[in-house]
Amino acid sequence: MKETIEQSFVQLLRENQNILHKICRLYTSDMDSHKDLFQEMTIQLWKAYPKFRGESKFSTWAYRVALNTAITLYRKSTKTIQTSDYEKHSFFIKQEDYNPEEEEQLKAMYKAIHQLNDIEKALIFMYLEDKDYSEIAETLGISEVNARVKMNRIKGKLKKILNP
Question: Which residue range or ranges hold the RNA polymerase sigma-70 region domain (predicted)?
Answer without folding.
Answer: 12-79
